[in-house]
Structure formats: structure tokens, C-alpha cells
Amino acid sequence: MNTSDRRPRRHRSGPIRHGRQRTPSPVGAILKGLAVVLAVALVSIGSVAAYAINSLAQQVTANAVDLGGGTDAAPPPPPVLGAFEGGFNLLVVGTDNDPNQGDSFGERDATLNDVNILLHVSADHKNAVVVSFPRDLVISHPECTDPDTGEVFDAMSAQPLNDAWERGGLACVNSTIENLTGLDINYAAATSFDGVIEMTNAVGGVPVCLNEPIFDADSGLDLPAGTSVIEGQMALSFLRNRHGVGDGSDLARIASQQQYLSSMARTLKSANTLTDITKLYGLAQAAASNIKLSTSLSSLDSMVSLALTMKDVDLNNIVFVQYPSGSSSADPNKVVPVQDLADELFAKVQADQPFTLADDSTGTGSTVVPTDPATPADPGTETPATDAPATDAPATNAPVEAAPEVIDGLKGQTAAEQTCASAFSD
């Protein structure tokens, strides 16, 4: 579907109230974590008033979470206004409940980590991988301690990933993903519904594409076909929407979230966003008030360094993938790891090796927007003739960089790809 001739529509809406919902899904949140560090970095460099920066730093530090287990001590001290040396892993968790959000999104019995996204940046800062983990992924869980009560939860097997938050908050989710992937994750952040709304408002909206109109009363999503610029409540509805897109599964919702996050990455890296100090400081304020960061990420130096590490990664080299999973024979509403493919994926991540996706690898309910063909040269313009004899280009001994390996079977897209969501279909 080509949407280039359609004017993006901007949608905002007021709060939407629903009845009792046990497990409504929130938003995929990885670039909201990146937004705050990018904002703080550029605001700091832009010489915004010192008292405003100090106020922001105090907010972030007050909400910081200790990941425990000595993990926070692992990263080396960040340079001042310089990129990190080497790569890093950052976990961003989206929760479905917050004591401060009231009943605007329905009542629920517990707080669950419904969105779990891991960002890996390579040591040379040329590539990044963003892995979305299904909330219903049945895996083993390590022992965790509740930071508020001190209660110790024993390790357990064959339980959904979104049980981890109730066993110890952000630190427990972080440990569970480390246990699953074999990676050391030194940085983490958590956000909820209100954080999504404030962050999308601060960035000024994100373009999303629909192949046909989608209306879903459960999430409140109501958008026409084509491209719309969404923010606030409508952005949250797009990211929460499950029953209106693809096959109605959580995996289809992940594909929509990856479309949104890819578009947000392009928005954040656009010239207008990166040079608008007012918008950037708005992002930082929204994040400081609504996102909890790990103590390893709560200093201004750390946030500045993380932003400077990410800012030059090419969009074509940011790969969004779904954690490989398949249907559970024990429960049709759950999924289990496809272990061979997961091992292949994380072997690449662990070794810091880039990879690409196969053709037609977009997730369920998502299609790639065809790119326009290259504009042909003006037929009225001729290359001027020259009397100089043709010469061969000088030989060079520079090594030719091998193309990244394709991992067949992974679902996802790059940040440079523009995709459209399809309405629910049986």
C-alpha cells in the first residue's frame, strides 16, 4: 500500500474509561527510555538553565531503582559529555498499573510487566538490536526479592514472563530476562500508561499507517486508513490495541508496537526534533516524572553518555525483532520459546555481530510500505563530454566488509522501514 499521497491526520482524544480488565496491555516503551537520555544530553549541551537541569536530575534520582546483585556496579564510570566506550544492554518495561493513574484505564488485580523490550548496542556503536518479549512467554524465573517488603520468592519454572513484576518489580524483570538470554543487563527503565501519554505529547506525535480503518472499543482505537499522526490517548490506544489488528494476538500487537517505535525513532532523529530545545526539554521533563530508571542510569553523566552513544546509529542498522516463540501445547493462550532460533539470535547479540532479517519478515498484521523507485535522471540533461582518456580506478587493498548474515525465521523490521497495520482478520 502506498500512502505517500495522503496527508497525515492528527488525532487527540480525552480519557477513555472501560470496565474491569484483568490484563489490558500497555505500550512498548523502549524509545521512551531513549527519549529521556537523548533529551537530557541535548538539553545539557544546549546550555539550558542550570537550575532546570538540577531539578530534572533530582526527579530522576528520587525515582531510581537498584537492580541488585551487584549489577549496578558493573558499568564503568561514563565520560563527561562523551559516548560510552563499548556496547551496552538496556531493558525497558511497560507496566499495566500505576498507583497514581487512578481508574482511568480500568481496575486490575495486580501490576504486570506486559511489555518487555531489550536494547543492545554494539561495541562499535554501528548497530543496535531491539528485542520484544511476548508477555505470555512461558519460561523459568530466578529467585527474586521484593524491594519493598523484603519477601523472597523462590525460583520457578514454566510461568508467564509477565508474572515477574509482582515478584520484585523492575529488578526481578531484569533478572528474569538475564536468565532467559544469558546477557548482562546493566541498565533498565520502567513506564506505565501515564508515561506513554506524556512522552508522545512531548515528542509532538508519531505517524502511524493503517491499511484499512480500525475501530476497537476495548482499547479505544479509532483511526482511518492511511497515515495519521497520533499522540496522547490515541497513541496509547494504538499500542494497547490487540483485538483490532492482525489475528488478534499479542504477537500482532508487538508488530504494531514495532511500527510505532520505528516511526518514533525516525521522528526523534529528524532535524526538527533534534534541534528543538523546547521539545527536547519537554521530553526530559515528561520522562523524569513518569519513567523509573535503574540507579546505573540515574545520573546526568550516564544519561548524556547513553544518548551520545545512540545518536549516530543508522536507522537501517537498528533491527526490531520479536523473541522467537511458538504455540504452547499446554495452553493455547500462551507461547513458548523456539529455542534453536532464540539461541541463534542471542549468540549474535552476545558476540556483538550484526545480522539482518529475511524478506517478508514483518510480524503478524504488519506490511512494509513499498519505497518509491529512484528518481530517474532528467532526460534533458546530458553528461558533458570530455576529451580526457578513460582511466581505471586505482587499485585498493582495503578489505570489503561482508554483508551481515540473515537469520531466517525471525519476525521484525528495521527502524528505517515504514510499515502499515492491518485490521483484524480470522
TrEMBL record:
Residues 415-426 have a biased composition (Polar residues). It comes from the Bacteria. The keyword Cell inner membrane does not apply. Residues 7-21 have a biased composition (Basic residues). The chain crosses the membrane at residues 29-53. Residues 113-269 form the Cell envelope-related transcriptional attenuator domain. Belongs to the LytR/CpsA/Psr (LCP) family. This is Transcriptional attenuator, LytR family.
